[in-house]
Design a protein that fits this description.
Layout (H helix, E strand, L loop, with lengths): L3 H4 L3 H6 L5 E6 L5 H12 L2 E3 L1 H11 L2 H11 L6 H12 L2 H6 L1 E4 L5 H9 L6 E6 L2 H9 L1 E3 L6 E3 L8 H6 L8 H20 L5 E5 L4 H19 L1
Parallel strand pairs: 1-3, 1-4, 2-3, 4-7
Antiparallel strand pairs: 5-6
Helix pairs in contact: 3-12, 4-5, 4-6, 5-6, 6-8, 9-11
């Protein structure tokens, strides 16, 4: 898959510009963000990045920020924002991100993180927010069940198993209860408005209640428009 830059420029122009599109995507738990990230990665060839993956990679590579992060992780402490920002900045400076563009998945999560990214010189071309009502999010989470033998995830309303044998052995994650989902949503809402405020000029809010393919089509248009503006 070619980078988005190459998809909308002539071959000559594409050779002159090595910078791919830079995207941030945000959404509450169960908003469908993971599914949309996979589609964006497939459609535009960008590098999909989550803070968890970046932290683990930095620790494994024994970079300076990775070593610092490991000290906090080994002590059972939260990795502070300044260390996370260092990990993110280092990763975004790598050649694949510069050439293909990148997709930051669920980061920044707070205004402080967004400000720190800006101060570190990290800017995006498009900020995508998946908007799904809390009632729908709760229904999506509470109905989830996992088959302990295969790891496959089902939903008791939207995608239940066809076989009674599978249905009988399904398990619910301990944190997939309405009470715990509401706590996670409260935490999400407490921060997301401030984060969105940092990206007003490049933000697009997408209705995430539709079919994944329909939601992806709207996101596709938004990213292409951002690409045209970038060019």
């Amino acid at each position: 898959m070619r980078s988005l830059t190459c998809c909308f420029m002539s071959e000559g122009d594409a050779e002159e510009s090595s910078a791919g599109i830079k995207i941030i995507i945000a959404g509450a738990p169960a908003s469908g963000k993971g599914t949309q990230c996979e589609m964006i990665k497939e459609n535009f060839g960008v590098v999909h990045l989550s803070t968890g993956d970046m932290l683990r990679a930095a620790v494994a590579a024994k970079t300076a920020v990775g070593t610092s992060a490991k000290e906090y992780m080994d002590a059972g402490k939260l990795v502070p924002d300044e260390v996370i920002i260092g990990v993110v900045k280092d990763r975004l400076n790598e050649s694949d991100c510069a050439e293909k563009g990148w997709l930051l998945d669920g980061f920044p999560r707070t205004r402080a993180q967004a400000d720190a990214l800006s101060e570190a010189g990290v800017t995006a071309d498009c900020f995508v927010f998946l908007n799904v009502p809390d009632s729908a999010l709760i229904e999506r989470v509470v109905g989830r069940r996992t088959d302990p033998e295969t790891g496959k995830i089902y939903h008791m309303t939207f995608s239940p198993p066809a076989e009674e044998e599978i249905l009988a052995r399904l398990e619910q994650r301990s944190d997939d209860t309405e009470e715990k989902v509401k706590v996670r949503l409260e935490q999400f809402h407490a921060n997301i408005a401030a984060v969105k405020g940092c990206y007003t000029d490049i933000a697009v809010e997408v209705d995430g209640t539709g079919k994944p393919s329909d939601v992806a089509a709207v996101i596709d248009i938004a990213i292409k428009e951002a690409c045209y503006k970038k060019a």
